[in-house]
Write a structure and sequence with these properties.
Elements: E1 3-7, E2 10-12, E3 18-25, E4 34-39, E5 46-51, E6 57-59, E7 67-72, E8 77-82, E9 91-96, E10 105-109
Parallel strand pairs: 2-10
Antiparallel strand pairs: 1-3, 3-8, 4-5, 4-9, 5-6, 7-8, 9-10
Length: 110
Amino acid sequence: HVQLVESGGGTVQAGGSLRLSCGIRGWQYNTYCMGWFRQVPGKAREGIASIEYDGTTTHAGSVKGRFTMSSDDAKNTVYLQINSLKSDDTAVYFCSDFNNWGPGTQVTVS
């Protein structure tokens, strides 16, 4: 049974930073691809970053240069470092293995 649990969200001022974490239970992360997504009420869920089993990362154009996805194999955890936050970044952020989803963590930029 796969479980994904996000943490690290909160309320920050514009220009601030956060690091989101996604703990993975039920399988070893580095045999699968993982992604970060975000969703604003009333809008479609947006894919913003992914990491392959070999560590290769991809970031959406809307966040490139500000967001960085990484992983810690020993902790079976993936991260999303978010810098230079803007009001448009306010959303619920989710991690996924493209089959399972975590409950999400709220990021609010004031």
